[in-house]
Design goal:
Length: 393
Amino acid sequence: MPNLFSPLPGETRRLLDGIPALIDRTFPLPGRFRSGLSADVAELSRLLTSGRGERGLSYLGRPAMLSAYLRFFLPWNLFRLCRLLPGLDLDLKSGDVVTDLGSGPLTLASALWICRPDLREASIEFQCIDRSGTALEAGKKFFAALSGEGCRWKIRTSRGELGAERASPANLVCAANVLNEMYGDVSRAARGDMGRNAEKSARLLLAHAAPGASVLVVEPGFPRCGEFVALVRGALTERGLAPLAPCPHAAACPMPGGQRGERKRWCHFAFETADAPAELLRLSAAAGLPKERATMSFLLAGRHAEATREAASADVSQRKEAVPVRVVSDAFPLPNQRLGRYCCSGKGLALLAGERHEIENARSGALADAVFARGGTDRKSGLPICHLIRSCR
C-alpha cells in the first residue's frame, strides 16, 4: 500500500490548471450571466448542505445551477480525486469494466484520465449511472473535450435511479459523493438508520460487482460521513470484502464515529489546496467559500486482500513486532521538543511520537512501520504510543 495524498505531479497539475478554461470553452457562459456566477455557486452550496430539503431531484436541470456545478463543484471534486486516486491500487487493465454510481458529469472517469496517464492506453469501459440526464450529457461533452480524439476508453451513460438498473458486472464499482445523499440528510440520521442504509449501500455496490471486484466509496470529510463510511466498511467486510485503503489492517475500525470521552473520532483526511487551480481559488473566495484545505473520507475494499494481508503479516513478523500504521492527523507538539500524530493500526488508534523531522515527514495519509512502546500510554488521549522504525512509504 502506498502513501496517500502525495503532491500532484507536474502533468496532473498542468491539466487541472487548465480545467476552468476548458469548461469555459466547452460550456460558454454569456457575459450577462457571468456576473452572477459567484452568487449561483453560493446558492448551490446552500442547496447541497443546509438547504437539501429545497433542492429537488432535478436541480441540475436549471441552467444557473448546472453552470455553477460545472465551474465550482466539478473542478473541486476533480482536485480531491486527483490527490486520492494515484495512491490507490485499483488494478485496472484492458478489458476491465468500471461502474460509477451517481457519476454526475463523469467526474470519476475524468479524474482518472487526468491523474492516471498509465491507464490511458488501456481499453476500459466506464458505465456511468446517474438520475440526472442533464449532468450525464454535460459529462460526456466535458470528457470528450478533455480526452480528445483517439481515446480508448468506452463511456456508456445510463439515466435512472441507482438501484433500478443493473449494468454489466464491473471490476471496480465506485460511488463518489453520492451514498450520503441517497437516504436523506446523513447529518440528521439516527445511528440505527445509518446502519440500515449502510447495509443497503453494500448490497447496491455488490450488485454491480463481478467476482473479485473492488469497491471504492468516497464521501465528504464530515463526521457523520466518516461514520457512514465506517458502517459501509463493516457491511462489506461481513460480505467477504476486506478493506484495502486507507486501513492498514482488517480488524474492527477504531474510528467508527462514536464517542470516546468527549471527543468524536472519525476517519478522514485533510490536505492543503495551494496547488488547486488559481481561477478556482478565486471563484471560491468570490462565492464566500474559501478552501484552504480539502477533506474526505473514503474506503477501498476488495476480495483480493487476503493474500496481501497474509504476506504483510509474514513480513511484519520479521521486523521485531513492527506493525503497519496509517497516519490520520496533522502534527501537534509533545513534551521535550517532540511531535506526534494520530495513526490507525491493527492494534487500534494510536499516538505516533518521535523527533520533529520524523513526524513532519510522516504527513497525513502516509503509511509507515511502527513499534508499540511496552506499557506506553499517552496521558492526554489515553492512546497507546508507537514509534517509527521505518521511514514512510
